[in-house]
Each structure stands twice: as structure tokens, then as C-alpha cells.
Model the fold of this input.
Amino acid sequence: MAQYLKPLPTITPLNQPYWDSLRRHELRMQRCDKCARVWYPPSPLCPRCWSRQFSWTPLSGRGRVSSWVVFHQPYFKGFESEIPYNVAEVELDEGPRLMTNLVGIANHDIRAGMRVEVVYDDVTADLTLARFKPSTS
Ligand SMILES: [Zn+2]
Done:
């Protein structure tokens, strides 16, 4: 695997289950045991009812594009060879919104509201990122 030059996430005890699930090619987020709210980014309590009782629950990996931009400037050296590249916000069917990249689609074909599904991208031996591709369902 080539050297990975892009910024890496800071892994903490709070978000570690999220990154561990991606390494297993699953998308899991915290789901409140009391009110069923699913949220991201990780936090120690439910943003709706403040319960501290939650479970790391597998999600469908499906959602829709709520917003996106195309970067034409390499703010990080590791991205230089990919200019222009997209950064998208995907609203998952379970509710949370995730910053990600869309793959398998030309930047000029991206549309708000388009259906997408997760793709697991093993960028290093220890790190897998959730990216999204167009979905037919
Ligand atoms: Zn709750």
C-alpha cells in the first residue's frame, strides 16, 4: 500500500467504536436506548433526551446527498494529485449527517438529493474511511 499522506482522524475512546466498525466494513453509530435517536459525531449522551444509555448500532449505509463542494485548491499536500475533488455531506436514512467523498461519479454529475450507499475504503492497514457511491435504490 502506498504511503498515505492525507490527514488522519484523531481516534479517542469515544469514537473508537465507529472507526473499529469501519475496519470491519460495517457502519455503526450510537443509537439511544431510550428514544431511538441515532447521532453522529460521537458524544457521551443523546442529543435529544440526554440519556447516557446507547448502543453502537449497525446502519443501512444508505442515504442521500444533502450538500457538496468541489475543491480546486490543495489545502493538504496529500490531496494535490486529486484536484478537483468533492467533499459531500450525506444524510443517512437513520438521520445523522456525515462529511465524506462521493466516488464512482463525476463531480459535475453530483446532484442534491441523489441516493447513495456506503463504500468502505481501506486507506491504511489500520484505517478505513466511509465514502459513498450512487445507489440505484
Ligand atoms: Zn435519546
Remarks:
- The chain has a mean pLDDT of 95.
- The pocket of zinc ion is lined by residues 32, 34-35, 37, 46, 48-49, 51 (CB under 6 Å).
- Residues 16-134 form one domain.
